[in-house]
Amino acid sequence: MRMFNPPHPGEVLRDYLEGVSVTDAAASLKITRTQLSRILNAHAAITADMALRLSSLLGTSAEMWVDMQSEYELWQAAQRPRPVIEPLHRPHVHA
Q1: Which CATH architecture has domain 9-76?
Q2: pLDDT, mean of each 10-residue run, the chain (95 residues)
């Protein structure tokens, strides 16, 4: 069951980093402050590489971050108009 309007994982990450400066967290992740700020402000996605970094830094699973990103992107995509796609009908083959 898909979550209704899931948060961007950057919003969740803000909670994990509460009390830690963006500069310090970025240094620990070996990325620029700008890169981390873009994630925290929902302007950049959590990549597989970033999920692994966050896993190491925070003791979470990388899958948690990737799953959050996927849920967010799927919900966002579902909100945009898309063409109607008809199911593929394959001819029935008799054995």
Answers
A1: Orthogonal Bundle (1.10)
A2: 83 98 98 98 98 98 98 95 93 75
